[in-house]
Amino acid sequence: MTVTTDTATTGRPQRGLLPPGAPSEPSGGNWIRERVQRLRTGDFGPLPVILGLIVISLVFQLANGRFLSPQNLSNLSLQIASTGVIALGIVFVLIIGEIDLSAGSVSGLTSATMVVLSINHGWPPVLAIILAVVFGAAIGLFHGFIFTKLGVPSFVLTLGGLLAWQGGQLLVLGNQGTINIPYDGTIASLANTTLPAWIGYPIALLYAAVSFGRAFLGTRRRRERGLTVRPLTGTLVPASVITLVILAATAVFQQWHGIPLSLIIFVGLVVIVDVLLRGTTFGRKLFAVGGNAEAARRAGIQVGTVKVVAFTIASSLAAFGGVLAASRLFAVNQASGGSDILLNAIAAAVIGGTSLFGGRGTAYSALLGMLVIGAVSNGMDLLNQTSAVKYVITGAVLVVAVVIDSLARRGRAASGR
Predict the structure, then answer these.
(1) H or E stretch at 332
(2) DSSP reduced 3-state for 386
(3) Does the residue 140 lie in any domain?
(4) What is the C-alpha separation between 320 and 312, in angstroms, rounded?
(5) Any idea what the CATH number is for the domain that residue 103 is in?
(6) Residue 103 is part of which domain span?
(7) Rg value, the chain, Cα
(8) How do residues 12-59 score in pLDDT, each as one tens digit?
(9) What is the pTM of this model?
(10) Which residue, among 273, 291, 354, 314, has the nearest Cα to 96 in the 3D structure?
(11) How far apart, in Å, are the Cα atoms of 170 and each of 113, 167, 315, 365?
């Protein structure tokens, strides 16, 4: 009898022993039936957000023929990169079932610190960027320590951080209010540099080679150890789709000025986080803590340490998101990290498929969610709509995403998943 633990949606591998004579790998037809069964039991995966993104794109393209033009898609990629990096950090705290309301203020404070050190005190830009990210990590470490050791709810703790770090930002900027960044400097180049579009083709081939290679090697190792082997279709199909998307995006950017460096940085971070969540022990611990903290504790996982690391990574990515935002605007001011940045980052993670209830989420949810929010905002701008309309539509999309998440959770519970 095969004993398995199905955690495919959280990135944790399936384990078990192969019974004598049993097939080591389900066929493609079985894989399709498995996908259909998952949908019936509430495991929608990224399907709703992908369908939503397609519908949004078609609607805005019909309303304004410039929406899917290479120039507009390039602008869209520049618009989503900085907030997308912040959303990527939010994914970590949502997976453990918590929230971080200070991410926007952390991005503003750390970017202000970076610019003051670089412009006012003459520090090398690279060193100033590194210090800004380290500063963000220290803030996250502080949040995690207070949360785990003193038991302060993350909502209240990070709400206080939102106010405190925003005040710190005002102190750092002082009477200057706004500090400009040189247009030809290292910091500005992060979000305002385009690379030749042809580099997208080797990137696509490298991604495909690594993904397929990992899938085949993983299958061989599991078969050699007598463990159940999941169908290669489950890995090869998504990897093939992502490869095709990279190739299509490359073809589009080739018709404009090239691929924005900030987009490559953002997508690169998404891939790194995806490997961290799905392919490491820490990633499995993170999902275990988010799924059931008490069960994880009894299994020997240091729950407090995992939560501290999650908050630290979240604030580090918030800091780097602030760096990209400052780079794109060529300046840091008192409004940096404010406005709707925090709300969009949280909304992106949730819309992309990360559960507010903890235990479920992927790195790609930040990318997909930001594409949805960015597409709505960009499309509204092309149609000359007001900010009020954009907020209403973004809020409605967020509510729909939460409703889908709740229904999926109910369906999984009813089916015993």
Answers:
(1) strand 331-332
(2) coil
(3) yes
(4) 13
(5) 1.10.3470
(6) 66-192+282-414
(7) 22
(8) 444 344 333 333 444 445 556 666 666 666 666 677 888 888 888 899
(9) 0.86
(10) 291
(11) 11, 5, 19, 32
